[in-house]
Input
Amino acid sequence: QVQLVESGGGLVQAGGSLRLSCAASGRTFSTYGMGWFRQAPGKEREFVAAIRWNGESTYYTDSVKGRFTISRDHAKNTGYLQMNSLKAEDTAVYYCAAGLVRPWSDASAESSYNYWGRGTQVTVSS
Output
């Protein structure tokens, strides 16, 4: 079992930055791929970014490429999402997720993830 807890959300002006954290419990987290998803008001949850269990590969949705960076620290059992140049359209509840993510080509699919956090709110004011 893996439990995930997100933190780091908040209110920020457009152009600003936030770093989200995803603290994991359970020894198996280091063997799982990790993803970040988000859900804006009135919209379906969408994929944001993913990272392989070993950190060797990352994958981003087009709208965040060059602005967001996903990373993980196995020693701390924590994943991160660094968000720069934030835009109003980035406003959403952000969720982290963990799973085997096999094949890697399915990293953007929610079905690739078995464990989910409860989310953290990110609000970007324009």
Notes: The chain has a mean pLDDT of 96. DSSP finds no helices and eleven strands in the chain. Residues 40 and 92 are 4 Å apart (CA to CA). The radius of gyration is 13 Å.
